Amino acid sequence: MPRYWQVAAGGVGRDYGDAFLRYGLAFAGNAQRPAIEQVQPGDVLLLKRGLSVVTAVGRAVERDGKCVGYGDRPWLRDFDGWDLPSYCNVEWHVPAAPVQTSGLTRATIQGVNQPHLLEVADSVLRSVPATTEIAPDPPPTRVVEDAEILTFLIREGMRPAQAEDLTSAFRRIRLLATYYYENCRWSDVREHETRTFLIMPLLLALGWAEQQVKIELGVSGGRVDVACFAKPYRRDESNKANDQDCVLLLESKDFSSGLNNAPDQARAYAEHFPSCQVVVVSNGHCYKTYLRAENGFSLSPAAYLNVLKPQDRYPLDPENVDGCLSVLRCLLPRSWA
Question: Which pLDDT band holds residue 142 (cuts at 50, 70, 90)?
């Protein structure tokens, strides 16, 4: 008899359920490895959202001779900053609308045996055809070492002495980000902490002067988390600010947040600053950049940086999205001088 499992695809602000369906997988972090390794071919998985919604149901299957795996899909080791090496292969059935139910728990993956959940799963499997087409894994990316980063930034015009300061800043940021990642409940590391202790130290180390940066700058409709100016921020005699000198906006998120849903607010704020060429979204350890195009800011990121694991391309879409060097170029003040 097959076992039935509930499985979650991330959390609030970090939902990667679409990737489960696209790649025919269910995946999770190291802590969930013992549970995932119990999944057998033919077991049934309920993909849940929150505590009351099932978005898909699948059967665990073998591909290339195995049902479960660990650590052999490099792109899962940096899924927008999260290390998710444990996985099982799944043939998903996706109903036209999510199924409302009850009895689900907060666990990432857990066996279920409530009759009504088993009936939900069986009903979807009976009535909805399986998704037979799955996407191939993204091509591999390359780790970029700090020496290559510093050489690149010096070629971009950074002073060698400043590059030494950046090396120290990287070390401090990584120590703290690793502490948050390994020792804290991620949701406890709020937006103000990521901005203060992780984001601003990187911007200052890259050469932004404090007088060029405004924190929580008020604009119509809200406040910009971080606004960077090509010249020091000032107001003239009529109290008008030099908004025309704003070249970069950064939306900061809490440590546990994903980055996919964050740019919309920053894009809206950027309309107040016609010289702003790049919008950056960061949760303190990962950054995505969005560049201004002819008809406004792109909906797709231009580049991605994980400070803990710099890569030459974006691991989830290396064919279309650049990597850490492009992000750092965008974050250099001299790029917008």
Answer: very high
